[in-house]
Amino acid sequence: LLSHFSSTGFWGLVNNAGISTFGETGWLPMETYEKFADVNLLGSIRTTLAFLPLLRKYKGRIVFMSSIIAYFTLGNGIYSMTKAAIEKFCDALRLEMKKFGVQVCIIQPGNYARSTKIQPPLSAEEIWSELSEEEKAVYNKEYVQERADFFNSILSEGSTNGSEVVDAMVDALTSPAPKARYMVAKLKEKALVLVCALFPTAVMDSVLSYALSK
């Protein structure tokens, strides 16, 4: 890798790749879990390991795209799972890279679904047609419709101002003293994270159960 870069060096790596989908735990086949882990988690790790020699040599920056959904989930646990894993990978990497002068930053966007198009709306029919016979025996179409309407309503509330997230990425790459974490989210989203961090799990479960029942 070193032969491909000039004396100015390799300064920054941004791990931005990610995919998302909606569905309760048993609705998704194992192949989907494997695909999400491969893209959202292992993809970032593969890229990081490939460029680590250069980043250490030039005392560069590594930026990871996480999400506030790393702290809680509302119908997309598969995405939440991968973001929580990336957070822990970054926590280990950040401490290990200090001795080399490499800084590791995490971007934690709130709901920017309308900016990124990472998650297209899903119809109840699409979801139902993909369910196994076992899951169809447990759930019914009315429940699936309710969940789809709920999740699609969340998507429709997403911010269209994606430049806010880009600004955080630029700051992480160029600031003399970048933050370890940049939470770019609405006040109510930050409040949910705060509740998740400070209150017992039972409290957070009650808050999310209430939200899901609306």
Automatic annotation (TrEMBL):
Coiled coil: none annotated. Keywords: Membrane, Transmembrane, Transmembrane helix. It comes from the Eukaryota. The chain crosses the membrane at residues 62-79, 191-212. SUPFAM superfamilies: NAD(P)-binding Rossmann-fold domains. Belongs to the short-chain dehydrogenases/reductases (SDR) family. This is BDH protein. It comes from Nesospiza acunhae. The gene is Bdh1_0.
